[in-house]
């Protein structure tokens, strides 16, 4: 999902107020430091890529005890009152069964990039997500070209960037899944640059 960089209003929300208020809204909102930020829709490519991820990851995890969520599921930033909507998230932690409104312990988060959100997704948003001790793979997917960057937390707890391009096998170590990048971009048509 794309985030509009303008606050929806100047009111401060507690998480409980936010959950109640958002149920009455037509669009989704993220809660960051007590302020709500409206979400807006993306392009067809954005939607198709997120759908491809979901169509591949969900059956892969069937029967594993892990749960796969689309962009309708909030992720609570660990030890904060912030709630974000990634394009896809996976949790394998039973502690996430205690809430129906969000998860807190994802091992995998996928964000499909747009021109307006790429810097935020790579910077401040990743800074928030990586607070989570369970997060292993933070996947950034281009919607303009066949390109995926994965911020992967290695066994030493260090974040490394793994970059994949056309012809590569993408490794999602958090869920033990390897696949050709082309599967994630199935039926995607890129606009030709002049």
- Look at the structure and name the CATH superfamily: tt1808, chain A
Cα separation of the termini: 27 Å
Helical content (DSSP H or I, runs of 4+):
10-25%
Architecture per CATH nomenclature, i.e. the level-2 architecture: Alpha-Beta Complex
Overall radius of gyration: 16 Å
Describe the fold and architecture.
With 194 residues, this protein is α+β, with helices and mostly antiparallel strands. It has a single domain (42-184), classed as tt1808, chain A (Alpha-Beta Complex). Helices cover 22% and strands 33% of the residues. It contains five helices and 14 strands. It has helices spanning 15-23, 44-61, 118-122, 124-129, 181-184, and strands at 2-7, 29-32, 35-40, 67-69, 74-76, 83-84, 88-91, 102-103, 106-112, 137-141, 147-153, 159-165, 169-172, 177-180. The protein has a six-stranded mixed beta sheet with strand order 4-7-9-10-11-12, with helices on one face. Strand 11 and strand 12 (159-165) form a beta hairpin. The protein starts with a strand and ends in a 10-residue tail after the last helix. The relative contact order is 0.14. Residues 1-7 have low confidence and may be disordered.
